[in-house]
């Protein structure tokens, strides 16, 4: 069974992670799903709340190994996520390797990669850039959701288009 998002609550750390102001979505059934991977619990809970409030079905994982297991379980149930949101710096599998592994299983998977290291050379090129957006942490929830919506809007562009978004630095 895929792990559901952690319950909302108070988390220590950056105030931007605990002062989310996104209105709850309508009662319509979610049509898109996201797998969020981050080893920092406050960031994971913050992102899960943002996507849940925006009407997404949310799956979470604390590291790359768990993400592969969660994705496999969801995929086996016919509910593979539409989007992967991953930190690039995970303790076991880096975000690049995770995205590559999941893209081998689902070439249509969209990816949002987050990093807290502005000087990191991510080394992503070629097909992996297609359907991918990169952002510097911290990121505002509205920017993260806008990127997710832009990537997954099938009527805005064809699958396979490079994301036309510019990376956001700072909040």
Helix content: 25-40%
Strand content: 15-25%
Indicate the mean pLDDT: 76
How many helical stretches? 4
Element order, helices and strands?
A: EHEHEHEEH
Compute the number of strand runs.
Answer: 5
Distance between the termini: 35 Å
Rg over alpha carbons: 15 Å
Low-confidence stretches: 1-30, 155-171
Arrangement of strands in the largest sheet: 2-1-3-4-5
The structural class is: alpha/beta
Describe the 3D structure:
With about 170 residues, the protein is of the alpha/beta class. The chain has 4 helices and 5 strands; from the N terminus they run βαβαβαββα. It has helices spanning about 40-55, 65-75, 95-105, 140-150; strands at about 35, 55-60, 85, 110-115, 130-135. It has a 5-stranded parallel sheet with strand order 2-1-3-4-5, with helices on both faces. α1 (about 40-55) links the parallel β1 and β2 (about 55-60). The longest helix is centred in the N-terminal third of the chain and has 13 residues, at about 40-55. The chain is globular, with a radius of gyration of 15 Å.
Brief account:
The chain is 29% helix and 15% strand. It is built from four helices and five strands, in the order E-H-E-H-E-H-E-E-H. The protein has a five-stranded parallel beta sheet with strand order 2-1-3-4-5, with helices on both faces.
Short key terms for the protein model shown above:
disordered C terminus, 171 residues, globular, five-stranded parallel β-sheet, alpha/beta
How are the SSEs ordered, and which strands pair?
Layout: E1 33-37, H1 41-53, E2 57-61, H2 64-76, E3 83-87, H3 95-105, E4 110-115, E5 132-136, H4 141-152
Parallel strand pairs: 1-2, 1-3, 3-4, 4-5
Helix pairs in contact: 2-3
